[in-house]
Amino acid sequence: MGPNDSSASPASAGPAGDAGVESASGDAAARARLRPPRPRGWRRRLPGLATLLDYEASWLRHDIVAGLVLTAMLVPVGVAYAVASGLPGIHGLYATVVPLLVYALFGPSRILVLGPDSSLAALILAVVLPLSVGDPARAVALGGAMALVAGGVCIVAGLLRLGFVTELLSTPIRHGYMNGIALTVLISQLPKLGGFSVEGGGPVESLLQIGRAVAAGATQPAALAIGLGTLALLLALARWPRLPGLLIAVVAATVVVGALELDTRHGVQVLGALPQGLPGFALPWIRPEDLGPVVLGGLAIALVSFADTSVLARSYAARLRRPADPDQEMVALGAANVAAGLFQGFAISSSSSRTPVAEAAGARTQLAGVVGALAVAALLLFAPEMLRHLPTPALAAVVIVAALGLFEVRDLLRIRRIQPWEFWLSLGCTAGVAVFGVIEGIGLAIVIAVIEFLWDGWRPHSAVLGRAEGVRGYHDVSRYPDARRIPGLVLFRWDAPLFFANAELFSDRVLDAVDASPTRVHRLIVAAEPVTSVDVTSADMLSELHDRLAAAGVELHFAEMKDPVKDKLKRFGLFERLGGGRFHPTMGAAVRDFLAVHPVDWVDWENVGS
């Protein structure tokens, strides 16, 4: 810009000091829009209290209305998921009230709703059903103990800043085990929908028993009619998301059962009268022999619940332009689960169905969840008889609709189109959950995730590089068959960190590249920019490889190696052994050094005519 240029920005027209202040404040505002500042200190650990201190009066009306609207879902869903988890329905309301209050204090998300969830029902049922042997008190203790384990794991992981752990599960694997859980939940509710029961077992065994029971005429027509009617009404009302479809369907089923006396005349199972009062503090005592399954179940619940909660929390944080805090989210989820376990509830998670209801109803803060919890508490205190005629088949229909919402089909078809092997991997995870059971299937999914994570590093891509006419840089000769190779020089690229599992493979591929060279090799240059780490095993391998190449008259050099990797080689003593002159800043510098030392017949296309 010349001294007389008139295109200066308006900010530069005023005094230099004012322009500097305006520019600085503008930059700060832009940064805040890009990444809002994270709360610190007690505001981070107690976000609910911080929100209360900054609460605006205009939010109150919205939060109260949203809380009351939310209550219409909290009650039937809480009861339905408790029954689906193998526990008495009242404990679903206990697991609704207490966690909502706790999360309102510790939860970093403004409108996330926690409570009993369909994705956890199969996990809880897999432990509760075989161990409780029909004893409701023991079932409640087992459910509470798993909530304590899951909560403790989440709290410790959050304090240790391990919120990234769930990111290790790839999208296809998450789809796979969630589809398996959805299938398990759906199968478990089919007998309740038809008014009969089957013995416990895995999903495949349960499906066989259901088929035999139906063939034997075990289905109750009245119960099946109520269940299918509720299911049809729920699916039909789903077209109008602003209507409280869940409330309408459940109330309609309850009215029909009560008016026609289907429970007494036709044996339709109903919830019955609920105990009056709020949940009391109670330690969930379990038998020593139950500890193993409870711990495994709690670990699986912690993984699934935080995976779902972190995804949902991140999406709403982005929509509300607020910073996501996965570590505090884990702590809050853990605290809510611990509270549920200590107050006769069971494990809970975030809800992808109730949270949008709160948002659509205008919720501004977690006060909406507090209002919903207090409304449910009021029901327990003053109107427990209201749910007396709520039919079990209708609750099964609620859970089935929720399970249908867990299935990932469209995205799996996308994955099949772009990466078929990951599609089949996802189906394998689904089959693992369906065949071996939910807990075992989750374990299988984790093992597969670890194998998938290691595979790219275990057997990574490598390439011999050459010079392609008219294309800058050095490229894979298998992709550029016409690329020319410099006589006497092998350029080798390794696209992964070097560690114990792939060290031998690296050495073999380097030696293969030297053996396959069309000319006698004087030097091998490793394009090391993709190599992000080196361990002791791979450093020892490099030392041995250096000796083997030197014995054959081949020099081992490196190009574009990152400084942190060089630092490791220095600690291992390998950098000094090889010599600093063998490490070049760029591939071009490495090639020029070779040509200066080893005159060969080579003319680069970029130098032609220059």
Name the structural class: mainly alpha
- Fraction of residues in helices? 55-70%
Radius of gyration: 32 Å
Q: Counting H and I runs of at least 4 residues, what is the number of helices?
A: 25
Largest sheet: 6 strands, mixed
Low-confidence stretches: 1-24
What is the averaged pLDDT score?
86
Strand order of the largest sheet: 4-3-5-6-7-8
Shape: elongated
Number of domains: 2
Distance N to C terminus: 34 Å
- Kindly state the number of beta strands: 8
Give the percentage of residues in beta strands: under 5%
Walk me through what this model shows.
This protein is mainly alpha-helical. It has helices at 16-34, 42-45, 47-53, 57-84, 90-106, 118-132, 136-159, 171-194, 203-215, 221-237, 245-260, 262-265, 291-319, 326-342, 354-360, 367-382, 392-406, 410-418, 420-436, 438-458, 503-515, 536-551, 563-571, 574-578, 587-597; strands at 114-115, 349-350, 462-466, 475-476, 489-494, 523-527, 555-559, 583-584. It has two domains: 51-220 and 268-272 and 290-381 and 398-452, no CATH class; 462-607, 2-Layer Sandwich (Transcription Regulator spoIIAA), CATH 3.30.750.24. The protein is built from 25 helices and eight strands. A six-stranded mixed beta sheet has the order 4-3-5-6-7-8. The longest helix has 29 residues, at 291-319. The protein starts with 15 loop residues before the first helix and ends in a 13-residue tail after the last helix.
Task: Produce the secondary structure layout.
Blueprint: H1 16-34, H2 42-45, H3 47-53, H4 57-84, H5 90-106, E1 114-115, H6 118-132, H7 136-159, H8 171-194, H9 203-215, H10 221-237, H11 245-260, H12 262-265, H13 291-319, H14 326-342, E2 349-350, H15 354-360, H16 367-382, H17 392-406, H18 410-418, H19 420-436, H20 438-458, E3 462-466, E4 475-476, E5 489-494, H21 503-515, E6 523-527, H22 536-551, E7 555-559, H23 563-571, H24 574-578, E8 583-584, H25 587-597
Parallel strand pairs: 5-6, 6-7, 7-8
Antiparallel strand pairs: 1-2, 3-4, 3-5
